[in-house]
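Intended use. Records like the one below are meant for learning the mapping from a protein sequence to its folded structure. Do not use them to infer anything beyond what is encoded.
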Amino acid sequence: MNLDGKTTVVTGAANGIGAALARRFHTAGARVVVADRDKANLEKIAAELNAIRPDSAFAVAADIGSEEGNVALIDAARAKFGFIDLFYANAGVAIGTDLESTDEATWNAAMNINLHAHRWAAKHLMGEWLAAGEGYFCSTASAAGLLSQIGSGPYSVTKHGAVAFAEYLSITYGDRGIRVTTLCPQGVNTNMLNPPDAGGDLASSGGGAVKASGAVLEPEEVADIVYQTILDERFLVMPHPEVHTYEKRKVDDRDRWLTGMRRLQARVTAG
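Structure written out for the chain above:
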């Protein structure tokens, strides 16, 4: 998809990958609706983009952890710019640790933001997209959605679900004009991996495993790769090539791969 003149929506756009995606889409000529709970940073992003090209960006303070929040975001984007050509479900949370220590509220929050938000957005976009015979749904999952996340059950489970949902959309609607892309990065230099207060569950447990498994990329590098994938209309964005190697090992000999993951977990927790 050529994004010039198109309307895009990016959630989790106040910082990190989301902000980098918003800037990259805007550079490509798109109108950008940026959504996040962090209203202050969000409005700075929108002001920055509008200073470059007036009335090309719109900030929506949104809580996409509920169906109502997703509906409100979509309604606001349509009211501002009309037809939504591309919706990018990027917002995510890295919360929860092991099974016995993670409460139900944490599981529910992870499920709602990392997985159900994708479903709710697609649900309320699909009718208009199918009527038009076109639409593009993008999501940020994780290498954890192809492999698994050491240290966080909710993160691993929900990111697997995000990949599965994207695959379902592509299979079910791909021959009806709906394009789907999902991003599965490993380490990216964001607040999720390196929180300012060092208090994130992923940073305190699985973050060490992520950093030990490959390079840590900058959000702008990832956004460039995502943009090229959207231009090419391909499904999977895998900015860390080593993830493909790990995935092949997993498929070829799952028991051996699980043994290796347990060894990595032991090294990380011991270090």
